[in-house]
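Hello everyone,

My group is preparing for a crystallization screen and wants a predicted model to guide construct design. The compound we'll soak is S-adenosylmethionine. Before spending weeks at the bench, it would help to have a computed complex in hand. I've included the protein sequence and the ligand's SMILES below. Output in structure-token form would be ideal because that's what our pipeline reads.
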Amino acid sequence: MHSQTVNPFLRQRFYNRASQANWRAFAFHREQITARLEAIGSSCAPSEASLCILGAGNCNDLDLARLTLSFHRLHLVDIDAEAMQSGVTLQFHTADPSAAVRRNRIAFSPCDLTGALEICHEIAQFPSPQTFARLRAALSHLPAFSYLSQQFTTVASTCLLSQLLDIFQRALGEDSPEFQPLTELIRLQHLRTLAALTAPGGVALLFTDFVSSDSYPELLKAPPHTLPAIMESVLRRQRCFPGTNPSELCRLLNSPPLVSFWEEPPTLSPPWIWNLGPRSYLVAAITCRRSRNDLRSQFAP
Ligand SMILES: C[S@@+](CC[C@H](N)C(=O)[O-])C[C@H]1O[C@@H](n2cnc3c(N)ncnc32)[C@H](O)[C@@H]1O
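Reply:
Good plan to model first. Here are the tokens for the complex, ready for your pipeline.
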């Protein structure tokens, strides 16, 4: 049995409460994410632009008031409903009546995007070949796509993949022979979810944190112009969190079964720093545009 037996939902809740008051510290990271989403939103007719955020949590990395100007409809998805509710309430805490109208365009879906957290918790306590088989079967589905049953002109995953991988890796332990194959299944499920929720002609954005100052202390004091070189060194020395290497994620997006969903190969942005209080993370954005004439638009990849 691996040492992690804390229910993964309670752990995520704990993390979210611990970072709830970080609105100010997140300012630069929030600007990076919001500005990229705004730029995409304003390229559509305002009445048609819709945005789905996977891993919205406290929404400290999203300027929702600005985003409701660029997107007619916003849909927040996270396992932690309370974090999303209080994040939205805090950002729309104003007497301005137009803010109330815009606030009403934001919907929430509390949803386990993996559909497998309960099984993961079971595995941490009582691993067996049968539970691993159930876990693999669960990861072949796309619960968010079934749950939302709609598509969006923009879909963004906000530093969620590293969390998903961390939850499962803690439950298994890095020494487990299941570690690598399950990392690949979780990653594939997440990329398929992004693709499936993106409408034809729409844009999928994967914001991914891939190394922290715990393993790369240089990040705490690195001037912005040195970050691309740091990123290159992190990738070359294979120091990313397991499964989060952005170049590898681009390669996966550009290979079957996902490649046929995109109009052109994914692009990788320069990195930036996400200051999370005691720790800093290096983050990059991967952008993919879904083909306009995709006949599978109603079906998951
Ligand atoms: C790094 S946080 C994202 C930061 C967040 N947008 C903010 O501003 O605070 C990752 C989020 O993923 C959520 N999460 C973790 N596992 C999940 C799952 N299986 N399904 C849905 N959301 C999950 C957590 O609740 C958390 O809010």
